[in-house]
Amino acid sequence: MKKIVSTGALAVLFSFAGVTTPALADADDIVIDGAWARASIGMNRPGAAYMTIRNTGAEPVTLTGLSTSLAMMPAIHETRTSAEGVSSMTPTDEITIAPGESMALEPGGLHAMLLQLQEPMVEGETLPLTLIFEDGGEATVDVSILGFAARRLED
Ligand SMILES: [Cu+2]
Predict the structure, then answer these.
(1) What CATH architecture applies to the domain 4-143?
(2) Which InterPro entries does its entry note (predicted)?
(3) Domain edges within the chain
């Protein structure tokens, strides 16, 4: 199990005071499973992180951004492969996850691109990645850094 840290404390504070804050409560409904990344070779090439994001709440949630101390420009990307077998990546501004649904970030599809690495991604270490949602809620996950050739998180 990966540790999930969210801004839930703030929402709890507000609900304790009797004020409903549906906006910020959304991130509490997010469960992130199996976050992993490949070790980087130095810092010249960008890294990528993968995970499953689950919306356990009753409202849709929209992921709009990423933040990490490890990379200057983290971004949501999608890899598409054409009928001719040519792969290309395009930035994706937002991902909306319906209630009860999950979204997989995986090699060959959506991924968290870590552009402009500030330090190498070292196998066996973890990197903190914060997911930022449209309503201002955030969820931070520790991403396990696997070997250079990893294709998926080991069970
Ligand atoms: Cu990418």
Answers:
(1) Sandwich (2.60)
(2) LpqE-like, Lxx211020-like
(3) 4-143
